[in-house]
Amino acid sequence: MTSTPTRQTTGASLHALPKAAPAGHGALPRNPGMALDIGWLEEMRHVNRSALERRAQTLTKRRSIKADNQAAWLLRSISLMDLTTLSSHDTDERVRRLCAKARNPLSADLIAGLGLGDTAIRPAAVCVYHPFVATAVKALEGTGIHVAAVSTAFPHGLSPLETRIAEIRASVGDGADEIDVVIPRGLVLGAKWQELYDEVAQFREACGEAHLKVILGTGELSTLRNVMLASMVSMMAGADFIKTSTGKESVNATLPVGLIMTRAIRAYEERTGFKIGFKPAGGISTAKASLDWLVLMKEELGRRWLEPDLFRFGASSLLTDIERQLEHHLTGRYSAAHRHAMA
Ligand SMILES: O=C[C@H](O)COP(=O)(O)O
């Protein structure tokens, strides 16, 4: 892969950490997209899987976070989270409980023990199915926490295009700030790049001011090369974020996939000047895993990608483990996970 060289680093580390900016849109110029450039895709075809796997191992093995810094980085993981419920048994009440948790993700004991004072540590967004957007918008009023909706026939993306576009418009109409769309994986597997580009461009248009996150379903794209090409086409068509997975595939967010997607983001910025966000999602359920992802972002794209306008975790259970680890940090003991149940 000639156009996306590896950034050379001497070791992966997370040290002192300034406070995260709020999730709000507007600080960065938005990606307008560009014409589909098939020639550029051709240049991106060569992906060295074993080099990416080695790089992923190096990043996590050599990570060092001093104990004092660890709590700060876990708090950052909370600020970068799309706290998610995407269950077949979701209800308005369940979504309201999740929003209450998003308003107050940490117990008073933890807030006091960590010396947080009035500093509000909250997830960047709550992510729900379309029918619960209005409920979440109401429950989060005044908090600055965004509402993200999964639209376009999540998780498979296989309803008629006009139905998927209507779904986006309905979610925006109900007040969603962000729309997470899924692509039909068949368009990638069949190398139908023009069709994929046209669909994503129409999704972007339907989003209006809401930001567009494009879910690739990487575990179903067969090769890392396909992940690279789908990432590039999505950004060319105007994606604000590219996202790995729905959480419903048998393989979800992996570090090698994260590496290829962040390198696509770097290549796109080098060519166009626009910074695109990244959202690994699916199966990220431990505090340790969240730190691995933060190391990857810092090493591959730099500190700017540790802010919620450029990085999110899509996660339904990560917050529970972070709470447990913060409690352990303070008391030296672990409490049972059920004490931190979210909904
Ligand atoms: O987009 C977010 C994912 O659906 C969450 O997946 P998870 O339940 O494995 O954390």
Automatic annotation (TrEMBL):
Segments traversing the membrane = none
One GO CC annotation: cytoplasm
For this entry, list what GO says about its biological process: carbohydrate catabolic process; deoxyribonucleotide catabolic process
Q: Where is the composition biased (Polar residues)?
A: 1-12
Q: What reaction gets catalysed by this protein? A: 2-deoxy-D-ribose 5-phosphate = D-glyceraldehyde 3-phosphate + acetaldehyde
Which Gene3D superfamilies does the annotation name?
Answer: Aldolase class I
> Which GO molecular function terms does the record list?
deoxyribose-phosphate aldolase activity
The record's section on NCBIfam families has: deoC
Protein family membership? Belongs to the DeoC/FbaB aldolase family. DeoC type 2 subfamily.
> What protein does this entry describe?
Deoxyribose-phosphate aldolase
